[in-house]
Amino acid sequence: MKLEDMLNTITLGDSYKLIKEIPDNSIDLIYTDIPYLIICGGKGSSPLARRIDKICNTQLKNIKAGINYKILDEFIRVLKKVNIFIWCNKNQILDIMNCFQNYYCDILVWCKTNPAPNCNNNWISDIEYCLYFRENGIKLNDGYELKSKWFLSATNKDDKQKYKHPTIKPLELVKRHISHTTQENDIVLDCFSGSGTTCVAAKELGRQFIGIEVDPEYHKISLNRLNGILANRTNKH
Ligand SMILES: C[S@@+](CC[C@H](N)C(=O)[O-])C[C@H]1O[C@@H](n2cnc3c(N)ncnc32)[C@H](O)[C@@H]1O
């Protein structure tokens, strides 16, 4: 598959394979939300713990196993300069930061104002982490709007209902990040595109984009979303 065939659309497939088709030094920004490394089970036998366990083993099948960190080398290869946002969970922060230790790093956070209750001896998980790495020469636009901490919830709840993805990220926040770190017509790559939030944000901002999603249902939802069509299925969560 050629770069042109992947440009400004979301391709159904495995990003570990498809990223090999992307030429060296061809991408301006990687903005991605990787499958989280979720350690299910062992959190007690309360009804809530059992429900979370069940969700982990069914609906979150493609989303809970983390990633193979070798893809991070591919990220560096395809980028013109390192300019990468990676949403991840706390179990992945250390490994990812180790892979990018030669670059500037910021930890950006989305503080959820409507977190799910927790069970058994854990802090409520009301923070989502987004690691941002860049190398010399990447300038941040719109400095006065730069915030590393966002308090949001309602938008995301609405989007979850509209696009049926359990880990959908807030479009407004994604747009802010992309507009701070790219120029018009730049190419933004998301290898784990889910319901297509990154691609929609890039499109609305006049950036080019490449999305890759392995789940056929999310792929269909995201293509429809790009064309302004809401998801109509109800069976995925
Ligand atoms: C955390 S979700 C992304 C959610 C997205 N940010 C949104 O707002 O909808 C990660 C996505 O990566 C997809 N995925 C997992 N493994 C993949 C692979 N090897 N290639 C492409 N997509 C993959 C999952 O199906 C899931 O939809």
What are its keywords?
237 residues, alpha/beta, Rossmann fold, eight-stranded mixed β-sheet, 9 helices, binds S-adenosylmethionine
Please provide a written account of the structure.
With 237 residues, the chain is an alpha/beta fold. The chain has one domain: Rossmann fold (3-Layer(aba) Sandwich), CATH 3.40.50.150. Helix content is 31%, strand content 19%. The protein has helices at residues 3-6, 15-18, 47-57, 71-78, 93-99, 154-163, 171-181, 197-204, 216-226, and strands at residues 9-12, 29-33, 83-88, 104-112, 127-134, 149-152, 187-190, 208-213. An eight-stranded mixed sheet has the order 1-8-7-2-3-5-4-6, sandwiched between helices. The protein is globular, with a radius of gyration of 17 Å. It starts with a helix and ends in an 11-residue tail after the last helix. Mean pLDDT is 87; it is low at 233-237. Residues 14-16, 33, 35, 62-63, 165, 167-169, 191-192, 194-195, 197, 212-215, 218 line the site of S-adenosylmethionine.
